[in-house]
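The methods section describes the discrete structure representation at length, but only in general terms. An entry of this sort, consisting of the sequence and the corresponding backbone structure tokens, reads as follows.
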Amino acid sequence: MIERIQKIQQEVEAYVFDENQKAESFRLAYLSKKGLITTLFDEFKSCSVEEKKSVGSVLNQLKRLAEEKYQTQKEVEETQQEVQGSGEDRSLPVYQFPEGSLHPLRIVEDRLLEIFYSLGFDVSEGPEIEDDYHNFGALNFAEDHPARDMQDTFFIAEHVLRTHTSSVQIREMEKGKLPLRLVMPGRVYRNEAVSARSNCFFHQIEGLYIDKGVSFADLKQTLYYFVQQFFGEGTKVRFRSSYFPFTEPSAEMDIWAGTDTEENRRLTKGTGWLEVLGCGMVHPNVLKSCNIDPEEYTGFAFGMGIDRITMLKYGITDIRDFFINDVRMLKQFSGV
């Protein structure tokens, strides 16, 4: 009987399913009431005790093999029937979508965040629709400041589309969890004419550091590090006095672009220097508006346009190219 079992096992292992030999044909031949394996089990009942010991395990192994092969083929045929019923042809080659790429603004923002992460800054975000207090009042803007006029700001009833991410600074300082070391990326809006160099919406990233004993020297060292990491070692930097309602003293930081090319002369108006960000020490009035004692705490803030930085890094001359979703431009950044 062992020899017969081994022979049938070889048949089961060699069995090939095709258009004529399907799962049901296999079942009828081997596993049905009149199938070969069932017949063997009937004969097994009349075997002696000694024979059962040697034959039982081999016979059970054959049955498991046949059942597994049948079940596998049955599932294959059921799947084929479902596909045929749905009208799909899964034998057709799969359409391969080309790999996408990050937008250049996202690439630059990620790099900026990576640099400031390394300095211990965390990220914070806030709403794009703001109230007057967080967008202007708490930031020491005078009641008659031009930025409050409709020709500069988009108004929505009693709210505004934020004109800078500085509003997030106020929301974070109001929480009273000091010290603070944050960067705040996001989209901002200003009522400006759309051109190659400006848009009515763009992207900013601002930084804020509030603690005891923070000085302008800390601000300069932070920004020196940023410039060397982003624009490359040896990049020349200068600070110029400036004015912002929410910082005092205030400054603008320039990098040396040079005058060796016509493009650089045009960008820098012949000076060789290109402004990349504004910065300064947080104004005492701003600290007071957030219930922070300016006699105990000081801090610095800085802000830059991500769009402007991206244009500088990749030599993009028209800011509108970022928002037209032209694949010819976007696919250039797939390997960046």
Observations:
- Residues 85 and 147 are 64 Å apart (CA to CA).
- The chain has a mean pLDDT of 86.
